[in-house]
Design goal:
The chain has 264 residues and is mainly alpha-helical. Helix content is 60%, strand content 5%. Strand 3, helix 11 (215-218) and strand 4 (223-224) form a beta-alpha-beta unit. Helix 2 (38-49) packs parallel to helix 7 and helix 9 crosses helix 12. The longest helix has 33 residues, at 2-34.
Length: 264
């Protein structure tokens, strides 16, 4: 029995050391790929190591976020930026016909590029995102149901796809949708309410705009594509401390044609 016990301890120690090495490698890789933007990422790490902001979980979350930033980013062009500004400036909810008209006027001069997050996101954006994510997680009535690992994977991330990003998106969505769940005590009920209400406010439609606008701008729209609606619903949930992710099902093998057509 003694030998088995010692072997078990050895396996745990080796596993822990291996995990640490892998984490360090992931961080080193991210820092190397960040290039000149490396200093912005170091600012984030230093911020949470500072005694005035010290929270062991926030530091772990910051490292998790940075280690997983490679390959993530968004598509950008001057035409996309102009389109977004027009959406922001709208003083009423926009139908898809107007959105399509605006984009069709810009499409010919569109020259999109992919902007990696590692090379472009600044410390202030990442710190604000981390602090706001923790704020709602700590305050949520269902915090005991959301582990730190679940939080890191499904509340902390600042993007879901290749959508445009906006400063203050968590605050904007929180202020708009928190009244829906302020008296709710369970995670399941909060999820159901948000899923239904956001889905009702933003109906589904095809679109000539082939990219994903940010969720703050999407609050000016009456309709959006299926993926945009998923991004919006999931972003609202994350802003409220509800863990969520987007998955894709190409076809439902157990759905009849009758059900797929919505006849029931």
């Amino acid at each position: 029995m003694r030998k088995i016990y010692l072997v078990g301890i050895w396996v745990i120690i080796v596993g822990s050391l291996s995990s640490c090495r892998q984490e360090n490698q992931a961080l080193d890789k991210a820092m190397e790929e960040a290039g000149k933007n490396r200093l912005e990422l170091l600012k984030v790490i230093d911020y949470y190591r500072n005694v005035d902001n010290r929270d062991p979980l926030k530091l772990k979350a910051a490292l998790f976020l940075i280690e997983n930033m490679p390959v993530h980013g968004g598509v950008w062009s001057e035409a996309i930026g102009t389109f977004r500004e027009k959406v922001y400036e709208a003083d009423s909810l926009l139908p898809m016909e107007i959105l399509n008209k605006w984009w069709n006027e810009l499409e010919d001069v569109n020259k999109p590029i992919f902007k990696p997050d590692l090379n472009n996101l600044k410390a202030d954006f990442l710190i604000q995102n981390i602090d706001k994510a923790f704020e709602v997680w700590y305050a949520s009535a269902w915090r005991k149901d959301v582990s730190f690992i679940n939080f890191c994977h499904h509340i902390l991330p600042y993007r879901l796809e290749k959508e445009l990003l906006a400063d203050g998106w968590r605050d904007s969505l929180y202020q708009a949708y928190y009244p829906l769940v302020k008296d709710i005590k369970t995670l399941k009920e909060a999820y159901e309410i948000v899923h239904y209400e956001v889905g009702q406010r933003l109906s589904s439609s095809s679109s000539d705009f082939p990219y994903k606008i940010d969720v703050v701008a999407m609050q000016h729209q009456l309709k959006a594509t299926c993926l945009q609606r998923c991004i919006m619903i999931s972003s609202v949930m994350r802003a409220l401390g509800i863990p969520t992710a987007i998955d894709y099902v190409g076809s439902w093998g157990n759905y009849s044609t009758r059900v797929m057509r919505g006849s029931l």
